[in-house]
Amino acid sequence: MPTPKLTDEQAREAWDALVAHEHNSLAASRSLGMPDNTFRNRIRVARERGFHLPQGIQDAMTSVGINNSAMISGGWLKTKEASIQFRLDQSFNEISDISDRIQEALSSIKSAKPKPAPAYCDDDLLTIYPIADVHMGMYAWGEAVGEDYSVDIAEERVRSWMSSVISASPSSSVAVILDVGDLHHADSQDNRTPQSKHQLDVDGRQFRAIDASIKALVYCCDMALEKHQRVIVRILPGNHNPTSYMATLFALAAHYRDEPRIEVQKVPGEFFIMDFGQCLIAAHHGDKSKPERMVMAIADRYGPQWGRTKHRFLFTGHLHHLKSSEIGGVLWQQLRAVAPKDAYSFNGAYSGKSEIRAMTIHRDHGEVLTVVSACA
C-alpha cells in the first residue's frame, strides 16, 4: 500500500515546530512525538513547498497564483500598486539547510557530566598541547603522494597521537589544548582556500569534517581531564578555516558547559596569550606575518604580561615543518603539521614530517620537558 501523500498542514506543522524551537530539530521532533527521520522528511517537504520562505514572499506567491509546491527561481509580482521583478537565489535554500544541519548537530551534543579531578597534580607545572594543521577533510592518495589521508585517518591520528603525548607528560595542574589553526582543510563546500582560491582535494562533505573534528577534540579533552586539574581549550583560525573553526569551538563550549574544570575560550581574534607564573605563552597560525614581527607585536600589545615574565614562548603552524629560533627573548617554534603532504605540497617538493608534541613548563623555570608523538 503506497504511503499517503504528506498534506500541507502536516508539513507546515513540522516547520512551525522547528521555528518555535529555534531550529533545534531534535527538540522540535520530540515536541510532536515524532521519530526524527519522519520529522526530517516533513521538513524537507516543507522546504519544497516554500514554507521556509518569509511570509511576505509566500503571500505574494499566493496572490499571483503560484502553488507552494512549485520550486521557483524568480518572476514578476504584479500588485495594484506596482510590478516588481524578484529572484530567489538557490543559495538561500542551501544556507538555510546548512543552518538547520548545524543546529541539529549542536542539539545532539549532550552536556558532559563533570569528571572527578585527579588525586594529585603539580601546581607548579603547566603542559601545552599545541595541535597544528590537522586539515580535517583533506584527501591524499598514497600512490600519488606516498601516504593516504582522509577524515577517518585524521580523526584517528589526532586521537592516538594526543593519547601518546598526554600519557607521557607529567600530571601538571594546568593543561592547554591549543589548536593553532587549519583544523579543517576547507572552509566551505566550495573546496577552495578562502583567499587564494586554490583548489583543494577533499574527502567527503564539509559537514562530516567538522563533525569528526568535534569528536576528536572531545576525546582529547576527556583524556586531559583525567590527568590535569584544569584544562584550557583554544582553537585559532587558519588561512584554510577562518570561519569553520567556530563550529568546532562553539560545539566544545556547549558540550563542556557544565564541566567546571574545563574552560573553552570563545574569544575573537587570531592571537592566543596567557601567562603562568614567570612564563608567557603566545600562539598564532603564522600566516599573517613573520615571527619577528609577531614578537614585537606581543611586546607592544601585551606589555604587562611581557614585563612580569622572563620565559616566553610563541607557537605557530602554517608551513608544516619544524623550525625553532630565539627571537628577542622569545622561544619561537613553528610546529610540524598533523596532516601529511597533499598533492599540492608533494608536487611542490615540500618536505616535513607529521607529529604532535607537548611542552611542560615550570612557573618559575620555564620549559622542563617536551614529549613528541611518533612521526609519520
Low-confidence stretches: 67-73, 88-96
- Total domain units: 2
Helix tally equals 12
Content-based structural category:
alpha/beta
CATH homology superfamily name of the largest domain: Metallo-dependent phosphatases
The 3D shape can be described as globular
Helix content: 25-40%
Task: Describe, in plain words, how this protein is organized in 3D.
This protein has 376 residues and is an alpha/beta fold. The protein folds into two domains: 8-107, no CATH class; 122-372, Purple Acid Phosphatase, chain A, domain 2 (4-Layer Sandwich), CATH 3.60.21.10. The protein has twelve helices and 13 strands. Strand 10 and strand 11 form a beta hairpin. Helix 2 crosses helix 3 (36-48) and helix 7 (151-168) runs parallel beside helix 8. The longest helix has 22 residues, at 206-227. Mean pLDDT is 86; it is low at 67-73 and 88-96.
What keyword list fits this structure?
2 domains, six-stranded mixed beta sheet, 36% helix, 376 residues, alpha/beta, Purple Acid Phosphatase, chain A, domain 2, five-stranded mixed beta sheet
